[in-house]
Write a structure and sequence with these properties.
Chain A: It is found in: Endoplasmic reticulum membrane. Chain A: It catalyses: L-serine + hexadecanoyl-CoA + H(+) = 3-oxosphinganine + CO2 + CoA. Chain A: Residues 195-521 form the Aminotransferase class I/classII large domain. Chain A: One of its GO terms (molecular function) is serine C-palmitoyltransferase activity. Chain A: Its cofactor is pyridoxal 5'-phosphate. Chain A is α/β, with parallel strands linked by helices and 568 residues long. Chain A folds into three domains: 6-131, no CATH class; 188-206 and 452-563, Aspartate Aminotransferase, domain 1 (Alpha-Beta Complex), CATH 3.90.1150.10; 211-450, 3-Layer(aba) Sandwich (Aspartate Aminotransferase, domain 2). Chain A has helices at 4-9, 21-26, 29-36, 40-54, 58-79, 84-106, 122-137, 151-160, 211-224, 232-236, 239-252, 263-274, 289-298, 310-323, 349-359, 381-384, 414-423, 425-428, 435-450, 453-468, 497-515, 546-563, and strands at 113-114, 117-118, 188-191, 194-198, 256-260, 280-284, 301-305, 332-337, 362-366, 394-398, 408-412, 475-477, 485-490, 517-518, 520-521, 535-539. In chain A, a hairpin with a 2-residue loop joins β3 and β4. The N and C termini of chain A lie far apart (80 Å). By secondary structure, chain B is of the alpha/beta class. Helices cover 41% and strands 17% of the residues of chain B. The N and C termini of chain B lie close together (5 Å). A seven-stranded mixed beta sheet of chain B has the order 4-10-9-8-7-5-6, sandwiched between helices. A three-stranded mixed beta sheet of chain B has the order 2-3-12. Chain B has a three-stranded antiparallel beta sheet with strand order 11-14-13. In chain B, α6 (196-205) links the parallel β5 and β6. The chains are: A alpha/beta (568), B alpha/beta (489). The interface between A and B is large, with 116 and 123 residues. Bound molecules: pyridoxal-5'-phosphate (2 copies). Residues 26, 29-30, 33 of chain B line the site of one pyridoxal-5'-phosphate.
Amino acid sequence: MPYRGKALLADSERGKGRNPVGIRFFFSVDPITLIASRTSIRFAQQALILLKRLCPWAKTSNSLGGVVLTRAVASHAAQLGILNTMASAVMNILQAAVDWMTFAFDAPSARAVVFGVPIGGHLFVEGLLLVVILYLLSQKSYKPPKKPLSKKEIDELCDEWTPEPLIPPLTKEMQREPPVLESAARPHTTIDGQEVVNFASANYLGLIGHQKLLDSCTSAMETYGVGSCGPRSFYGTIDVHLDCEARIAKFLGTPDSILYSYGLSTVFSAIPAFCKKGDIIIVDEGVHWGIQNGLYLSRSTIVYFKHNDMASLQSKLEKITLENKRAKKMRRYIMIEAVYQNSGQIAPLDDIIRLKEKYLFRVLVDESNSFGVLGRSGKGLAEYHGIPIEKIDIVTAAMGHALAAEGGFCTGNARIIDHQRLSSSAYVFSASLPPYLASAAISAIDVLEENPSLITKLKENIAVLWAGLSDLQGLEIASNPHSPIVFLRLKNSTGSFKSDLQLLEDIADRVLKEDSVFVVTSKRSILDKCPLPVGIKLFISAAHSESDLLKASEALKRVAASTFPNCG
Amino acid sequence: MITIPYLTALTTYFSYGLLFAFGQFRDFFRKIFDWWNSSNRQGYAPICLGNEDFYTRRLYLRIQDCFGRPISSAPDAWFDVVERYSNDHNKTLKRTDKVKHCLNLGSYNYLGFAAADEYCTPRAIESLKLFSPSTSSARADGGTTALHKELEEYVANFVGKPAAIVFGMGYVTNSAIIPVLIGKGGLIISDSLNHSSIINGARGSGATIRVFQHNTPSHLENVLREQIAEGQPRTHRPWKKIIVVVEGIYSMEGELCKLPEVVSICKKYKAYVYLDEAHSIGAVGRTGRGVCELLAVDTADVDVMMGTFTKSFGSCGGYIAGSKELIQFLKYACPAHLYGTSISPPAAQQIISAIKVILGEDGSSRGAQKLARIRENSNFFRSELQKMGFEVLGDNDSPIMPIMLYNPSKIPAFSRECLKQNVAVVTVGFPATPLLLGRARICISASHSREDLINALEVISKVGDLVGIKYFPAEPKKEHREDGTIKLD
Ligand SMILES: Cc1ncc(COP(=O)(O)O)c(C=O)c1O
Ligand SMILES: Cc1ncc(COP(=O)(O)O)c(C=O)c1O
């Protein structure tokens, strides 16, 4: 299409697609760009500029410019396919212009002296140049001939193409089935008809099966049904959602909060709402998959620092602030987990806040495993470190853990919350949390506030288990002494991730079968990029009795001793 | 394909232009004001970029009372909408204790399981006592109860696939499954109007994404041919695999997927079919088994069948149904299964009970009646709306029917006027729809009675006259429209 007009105008003897390399050497840079340029209008404009530079005589250049412009207009008109008849008229004009040029070059002014400068054959050379330019302009720019594939060729390609199977062949480790619970996931539950002590549920406060929660759920189900049948903006907002949001904000002392219908979606939707391409996020390498996914979806620049290593964080902050001149203009975040699901470590918020204030970063904290657990009254990481919660810009948490409900929330200042209500995709495009779960969360916070002793009990339980696990053979505790997740990792890795996991799974299976203690290993999805070692996780609950904890530690000790007979 | 009259297009552009200009004008003064105050935190880039939330501040806030209306009852055929008021020109809305009893034309309560149900609710409450509201653990750890196993069997059987896996949220189902199935070197061909969760999953996968024109199998074929012939970008290696993602019923259009054509094209070109039945499962088909049943597509031809329980089943969560191997693989690899809290046991029980009712396993014919009702109700309502001269999108049998409003000012007008007359409707505008194509969306439920619908039609007709959205007055004349219209996709 773009060359239709040109074909009409061009000299008849013009060769097709000839490579004007020789002439490229003759010219300097500008003509080469000219040759390369494809749009005829741009050709014309550039030629005009070039001409103006080459010919100081206003008259010549103007009239030549006129020629070029006429050409451009004509070619454009013809391109559009509107005025085919005009083309011949334009050719006449062109002819006339060329005639006029020949006359001008032959004129006696060829030997003239302008402002004391003898121009000699100057004009002639320039004219020649011009003609060459015009000639080149009329040529097709060089392009390797591109023939579209014929229908038959495409058919053949389609026939030949064989896709990979949708999923890879199943191997033995993919066939693993988790135990099936036959009663509620309380500290004592039933598996295969046998009562077991449950360390697999993040039921930190022991609220699973709490009568108050059950009552509020029952009455909510009777009034509201089970599901909400709509996203929040389309009649899926039920008054308990608003009450729950207000309750969470009041409990934490934040201005506002926002409910998500699933814990995992909270963080992976909230991050892309605030971080876009060009923003910088510095993140702990040990964060769980939900955060990793959020980071990936945000398309921001991601910088990892060593797991819970403040020196590494500082050096990364320093590096980014120094290296990046534009850093001041970008949104900058530090993303951490309060209690790391993948290691049981607790983030040193005091240091992080100090660094954040020094380097002017915002802080995002995922409190999924610390909300309701850390701090004197269970308000999480900020309370644990005695730091006002306003210092953390965005807090997200799952309600499926300590609160024994489901869903998640994000809390922060009003601006941050309101922004998510329109921009956070898992909030906007998903049905809202079933109202009975919102109601359960409200009751759970009520219970927590009325019984701070739950948190004390949880702390004691953690200490009891720690004491019991102090001299395990072959395994060591990798978690923080205050973390409700007790994380046991191998003292000596076998060297491969797979066989480590297999070893740990064997231990967990034996502990369950032989001692009726239900513990789990950390799982790694094929999408999970976490580099930390795998381990056995024990989720401690305030509802575990001392004998439960002793039973667990004895069982682990025994199985570890028989699995690692030679380890100290 | 929606045809929009020139005049309407012009006035709609004009309205948005005006809103935009006015918004910019206000922003200009706001900037000066802020500069005076310099209240922003020093040294930080603003957390919400000025242009990002321009739409929110200057367009959405004006009409935010039409969205997110809280309700204080179950989202049944009739529900209580909480009245709100604003003291600051709609910038913030405050709840009152007053409610308005309204007819619900907005919730996805297709089969009427949203409210307490004589069969489902007692069972859900029982399972609540047995299993508590949550397991506080992921399915792969300690979150699998006997109820979850039972649910998966029921779902697989209901959908018509060998196996199924359930998740706690429909959105996560899409966004966590797609990356497991496909990654770098793969190609996802997605309908242009697919749901945000699918887009999210596709983006998260790292695969190349191509889009085909909404519900246009011929264009899908072109894209497939072109892509297979060309291979991966730059390297031109052949694609590892191609997944075509479509929805059963498109929630903003009310259209049924042209599934038979899509399936045969995918078969021809060896692409895998991923079908999201969020809105169609339970709602259409003779026994409620979704678009495959309605359009007579063998479920064996659909490789991955996804759906959600938030709509027809009145619960929460989502499922994937497929071959035994596929499900086994997902259980091993899918992060939502490994890390996400398992679906709440009472919600699982609600789904099981709802499926039992639909299949008549509860010992009554309520399920069959519900299915007949939703179909009759939808077709009645749609044809009546069309007779009145509204421009209604979507196909017969689909319980979703968008009514085109176009003008941004008609969006709040329609919503508010209907609410005044106790009919709660959903209106949608930019950016959820293309700029020009603002609409109201009606979702019909099996729990609507004929009187409810007639009442609703009267109100909508009156409001339609008032707002001026009967774009095809009396009998629509096809030839008449042809010349004075712009075609839009
Ligand atoms: C100087 C100035 N300009 C503009 C506005 C309006 O801004 P907005 O539309 O954000 O309320 C205000 C309101 O506070 C103002 O004081
Ligand atoms: C096509 C489609 N897929 C997925 C979803 C998400 O489902 P849920 O609301 O259960 O998160 C929706 C919800 O609107 C949908 O329309």
